[in-house]
Amino acid sequence: MSPGVKVKEGQFLAQVKLACWSPGSWTQGAQMWMALSSRKADMRLLIAEDDKALGLFLSRGLEADGHRVRLALDGGAAVEAFAQELPDLTILDLNMPVKDGEQVLREIRILNAELPVLVLTGRQEVDTRVRCLDWGADDLMIKPFSLHELRARCRALLRRKREARLQLRAGDLELDRLDHTAHRAGRQIELTNKEFALLEHLMLNRGQCVSRVQLLDSVWNMEPAQTTNIVDVYVNYLRRKLRDPPPGQLLRTVRGQGYVVPLESDLGLETPATLAIMSALPTGTDLVSGSSNQHLTI
């Protein structure tokens, strides 16, 4: 694979799987796996630092590693930027105006409990560092620090996050991107390749509304100008297999915009009532309108 060719993450994983499972191709599969682990993934980073000069210095250093960086100069702006971006990594200074770093850490952990956070502080008190780690910080550095070490710590956190993205979870739904399997509440769900790709894309963008145009491009490689209801049809297929009847807990419709797999804090749990509704629906029921035998139009 040429380094100049941009390959979508899901397609790259499929190539790794094929290489690993093909006779005599373990070496090729291992090489591709190493490429997946080491390649720059154009990660989104948020730096929350009230010292603008230091923030810009850190931004330039991390942008040199191929990342997209957003700088927030106060705690309020940091929480707002986190909610908008859901960055792959947040670098958080504790001494922030509007909202201090400890409050920001608590609020972003309510928004998302999984995305890594690296705390920067000039405070020497052990209690402060312990509180930050207890509230969900993944790492902590004491000022002054080396930019070289900061970049290395960021790479380590992002590497662990990238490896974790091979196992996607939303509530009791688990998706294994390498084995190409899906389970809900321990029950294996048989998905077609397109159903899997659709669910994978939505879970990779968890908490963000993904438009039908984006899904047509990413999952079906179709031009948005084409008139088709294929996205809605496949969402209905998934809802039926996931036992997720409308309005949907795992796959939610954002009217006029697209679909979203909600964050853990917004995710309801499957109940016996929803399962009863699902089991009562006739085969071929449209899980949006309630009518049977929805037809695919392309």
Q: Write the CATH homologous superfamily of the largest domain.
A: Response regulator
Average predicted local confidence, pLDDT: 80
Helix count from the secondary structure assignment: 11
The name of the CATH architecture of the largest domain is 3-Layer(aba) Sandwich
Determine the structural class based on helices, strands and strand pairing: alpha/beta
Low-confidence stretches: 1-7, 33-41, 269-279, 283-293
- Largest sheet descriptor: 5 strands, parallel
Cα-to-Cα separation, first versus last residue: 32 Å
Q: According to CATH, what is the topology of the largest domain? A: Rossmann fold
- Succession of helices and strands: HHEHEHEHEHEHEEEEHEHHEEH
Number of strands: 12
Q: Widest sheet: strand order?
A: 2-1-3-4-5
- CATH domain class of the largest domain: Alpha Beta
Radius of gyration, Cα only, in angstroms? Answer: 22 Å
Strand content: 15-25%
Taken together, the total number of domains comes to 3
Question: Which of globular, elongated, flat, extended, rod-shaped describes the shape?
Answer: elongated
Helical fraction equals 40-55%
